[in-house]
């Protein structure tokens, strides 16, 4: 599906008009903490803070890696044009909720099976206890 320029730039805060602003926004949109990103890249948090505050810029190879991690286009990171964060965030969110619903349904079915099994066990034990009590009454 072709996107118009308006559709490709979902976020238009004033803070995203720089590489650092776009890096920060993309990291936030991807839900990646500063600490986690630094760990994944094998870099110090201060380095990423410097990028996000436009005091320095990542190497091109790191920029490409960041774009992949944030699910944005490298062009968007560099210029603000192209596929930025949120392009398919609704679709990703929907998919995540569908997966969670599927897990809940499976858990619900399993709980239903466990309830049925436990109910049958209780009925059997109750029956055994009643038989034992009847036997005791007859014996006395």
Shape: rod-shaped
Largest sheet: none
Outline the low-pLDDT stretches. Answer: 1-15
Average pLDDT across residues? 82
Helix content: over 70%
Share in β-strands: under 5%
Alpha-beta classification: mainly alpha
Give your account of this protein's structure.
71% of the residues lie in helices and 0% in strands. By secondary structure, the chain is mostly helical.
In short:
The chain has helices at residues 5-8, 19-30, 34-41, 45-52, 60-70, 74-79, 89-139. The protein is mainly alpha-helical and 140 residues long.
Features:
140 residues, mainly alpha, 71% helix, rod-shaped, disordered N terminus
Record the SSE blueprint.
Elements: H1 5-8, H2 19-30, H3 34-41, H4 45-52, H5 60-70, H6 74-79, H7 89-139
